[in-house]
Every structure is written in structure tokens, then in C-alpha cells.
Amino acid sequence: MVTSGIQQIRDTVMPALREVTREQEKRKEAAPIPQGPDYVRGDDYPGEWKPDALGLPPDCPVQPLGMDGDTIFLIDAMGQLAAVSPSSFGQAFIQRLFGRHIGYAYWAWPAYSKENGITGFKAEKVRESFYTAASIKGLWNAVEKVRGLGAWRGDDGELIVHCGDCLWIDGKRIDTGEEGRYFYPKRPAIHSPWEEAIGFEDNPARNLFKILKTWNWKRPDVDPLLFLGWLGTGMLGGALEWRPSMFLIGDKAVGKSTLQGIVSQVLGDGLVSSTDTTPAGIYQRVGNGSLPVAIDELEAEADNRRVTGVVKLARLAASGGLMLRGGQDHTGVEFQARSTFLFSAINPPPLAPQDLSRMAVISIDRLDPTKVTDPPKLDPHTGQKIMRRLIDQWHLYEGTWQAYRETLRDGGHDSRGQDTYGTFLACAHLILGDEGMEEAGYRADDLSGWAETLDARNLTEKEAAEENWKECLEYLLTSRVDAWRGGMQHTIGALIEGYLDSGNSYLDVAKTREMLAQVDLGLLPKGQNKIDKNCDFLAIPNKGPNLTSLFEGMPWSNRVWSYALRQGPMDIVEYRKQFNKVKIGGVSRRVTLVNLTAFAEYAEREG
């Protein structure tokens, strides 16, 4: 896509014009700055003002938000959030609150000297006024009410973009502060949306998509669009009901870092690119914002607890879940993650089913050396223009998202899969628009093809994301038993297979039961159970020392295995009270019964 000469001129002039306009508005709206202790306000003498509804002096540059326990929350004179307890509310903190408006505190709460008149302010009176005002405002929770940098959904569903020094609401720029039920504190400015609407001809996403297609994706018709959708998901962040993440996998020299570089170019200072791959390091960077997070080289390690903690943070962020982190005085501090994450690695860490259900895993192969060329340069304002498109198309998001969810449901996706891939596809569609989607080779008027293109049965991440009960059972069946090292069967599954395949000639019922009892397991063979005389059943006690050892270090340890197994289908798992008491090793035990015949048919059918 070639940018016209007129468009190039506009792209050069608009950023400068925007900065001039902002500075003019700031000067125009700024209140006079009080200078020193001699400041006076009209006919009101120092300390003799009429209180407003909150009991504060008129036009006070510091305003209360509310209180939580001993802590009160204030908007300081710069528009930032300030939190303070009674013991910390002294002279230094008051100076921090008022900043260049400190003369207002001299006038409102004056401290006098017989010789020199007003010499300062009475800190105890300032504290009293603001604690009274905060109590009038009522209870207030910073975790739920403060919205930092990034995109958010307003009380009426409108899109609100927090750019640090301003908010964008319905395509218009306003000052930060209280908006609806939330507080948007002033922060250092990041790049804001483009000032003008972006049409099809001027849409830089068309060129960006062509650049993305130059990588050697495993699914060339799918993955570049999903990647573009992740960029849109990152920009919309906290405004989305569901914030899926993405894991980019590929060997060295396939272009992963170059892709991360494109992400940095597009998102600019609206991206948290972290090299501190710890949950604490990330939430210190993100704070109460919703900016996207990119982490390169999140590789598997001998001890994966650190990287697993980061992946868990992405899992919580998908739905905006709360997590506790350590605070001062050993007290827990709540943190709400509302970002989407982009990970990349050669060897990714183990990903649990609950993590895989909240992300798309895409892979890149090595580029053909004969076809490698320098990628075209991006429009330097690509990110700002895409953000403007998302703002202008926001009213279409819900309908587009639901339309993709419906077709993905037809492709065998559960609700999590519909949410995850539906979000990426809907964001990509809004970025490109109907014309852009058609130009890229996708039907904009008929989405039904995605049911086959993204059939859940063909997705690598779905293959890895086993159902919890099945994963638990398969772990048990593949567990090695030290007590059997002298025999041919070293795993529980191999023993059971030997019993079933031998027709009871090589391993009879008595021998099989004896060996299974050594690991707290039992067997109810065909014809000798009250449930189904045509099936064999494995009896798994709800507790037992040997099973505890087998499951040690796994998610199903500490007797959790019984709860996990009972999540299985009723034709495979039986635990009704009239059937679940079984004698194992001479002792009656409460168990969960697995229909081995039905499970074998299920495994053959489902894989």
C-alpha cells in the first residue's frame, strides 16, 4: 500500500498539531497557581472560608475519593492517586499533595506567628478536613475503582482509552479524573489514538497484515490473522470481557524476536515489554493498568515454578481475576490483572489445560533463505491509527464477537475456545474492516468457513489440553511401580493390559488383584460386579498411602485425585454409594470405579 503525498503531509503535520492543541488547552483550563503564603482568594480571608458539601474549602485542588479502613484515597493537585493513613498525614505528605499549589494550604488552614503573620499551615487541620471529607464520600476500594493506562469499558459500555495525560471517550479527548464509577489517575503520557478517522484507503493494517504474512507460519491462512487480532486485543485490553493470550513457538532464527520487534513498533509505549519474568516484576510494571505484556524467551527450565507463575498471571488476566501479592508488614495486597500476554519460546514451559484454554498457540517454521528479504517498513503511526479504527468500530465489537463465537461453536469449540479465538478474530476483523478482510482473502459476509478452518479437533493446543479427569487417570495408568521391577509389567496400565489381553491365562484375577493391591488399587472383573457384568472395573480408593506417593507433586495429590476422576462421564466413572465400597487387600474401602471397557472405547474414539 503506497501512501499518497497528501497523506504523508498529514501524517507529518498531525502529531505536531496535536501537541500544540494539547498545550493550548492546558493553559486555557489551568487554574491560577497560588504563590507562597501571601495568597488570597477574593473576599475570603485566610481560614475564614465557607465549606462545600464535603466540608472542604472552595475549589480545593486536592479532592477525596473515599476511604477503606484507616486509609483515605485522594486526588492530588496533579491528578494522581494518593493514599495515606493517619500516621503518615503530616507536613511532608501535605506538601506532596498540593505541590505547586501549596499556597492554597497556607490560605485554607493558616498557621500564624505573632511577629510574621501566616508562616505555614496547620497539618492537623488539613488532616481533619480530608478525613471528614473522605468519610462523607464513603467506602472506596482502589483495586476495583482505579483504572490506569490502557482501554476500559465505561458504565454504559462505551470505550474509554486512558492515555496518561488524557482520556479518549467516544472519539473525544477529555481530562483524566473521575468518570462514572471509576477514577482514572493522571500518568505520564503514552501515544494516543490518531486524531482523524481512518478509512480503508488510509488503513495501515493492510500493509501490516502483508508484512505478517511473510513469516513461515504453520497455518499461513490462520496464524497471521490471529496475530493481528492479538495486537487489537492488546489495545482494547480492559474493555474486553475476555483477554486471551498468545504463545509463539519456533526454533532459533525463525523470526520470533523480529515479530516481537513489530509488536513494539505498533504498540510503542503502550506495551509492557518485560525482561523480568516473575509475576512480581510484571505487576509492578503494569500496576492498575491494562496495557499488553510481551515476554520473549519464556523458556522451559529445570524448575518451572517461576515461568509457571507468569503463565498463571496471564490465566488470571483473561477474566480479570484477583490475586494476592505480598505487601508491607507481611499483609496481602490485592492485584487485578487485566492485560493480555504475548509469550515466545523455543521450548515452552509445561502448559496446564486451564492455561491452554485461555490462549492460542501458534508456530513458525524456518524461513527459506532464498526468499528472505528485508520486510517493508511500517507507517510510524500504525499503532495510533489502528487504535483509532478500534475506537470508531467499537460499537460493532459485541455483534462481531458473538458471530465468530457461533461459528466456532459449530467447529466443536467449547465456551473457552469460542471466547479465545472469537476475540482474536473479532479484533482482527474490526482492524481490517469488511473491505480489508475481503482483500486479505477472508469472507466478511459469511463467517461459517471458520468452523472448518479452526476446527477444534485439529488444534495442537486442544490436543495438549486433556480433560482433567482423563489426564489424572492416564497419569495413574502410566505410573511406574517399584515393587514390580522383578516382573514384566512396570506400570499400572501395562499390568491391566496384560490381564485383559491374556484372557486370564497369563495373569489371572487373583494375581492381578494381588499386584494392584500393592498400590492401593482393586479390580472388579467381568461377571463379578453389580454394575455391568460385561465390563471390567478398576477400583481407585479415595485415600491411601501408596496412591498418595504416586500422586506426590502432581495437581491431584492430597486426595484430590478422587474429585478429579469424578469429573469423568457417567458411563466411565461410577461412584454411587451402593457400588463404591470395595474390598482391597482384605480391607473395605470407599472408591471411585473406572469402567475399563468403556474407557478403552472412549480413548479409541477420542484419542
Widest β-sheet, arrangement of strands? 13-14-17-12-18
Portion of residues in helices? 25-40%
Rg over CA atoms: 31 Å
Uncertain residue ranges: 328-332
Q: Proportion of β residues?
A: 15-25%
- Count of strand segments: 23
Largest sheet: 5 strands, parallel
* The level-1 CATH class of the largest domain: Alpha Beta
Tally of DSSP helical segments: 22
Q: Which architecture name of the largest domain does CATH use?
A: 3-Layer(aba) Sandwich
How far is the first residue's CA from the last residue's CA?
46 Å
The domain count comes to 4
CATH topology of the largest domain: Rossmann fold
Shape: globular
Mean of residue pLDDT values: 86
Structural class: alpha+beta
Q: What's the gist of this structure?
A:
The protein is α+β, with helices and mostly antiparallel strands. The strands form 7 sheets. The protein has a 5-stranded parallel β-sheet with strand order 13-14-17-12-18, with helices on both faces. Strands 19, 20, 21, 22 and 23 form a 5-stranded antiparallel β-sheet that branches. Strand 7 and strand 8 form a beta hairpin.
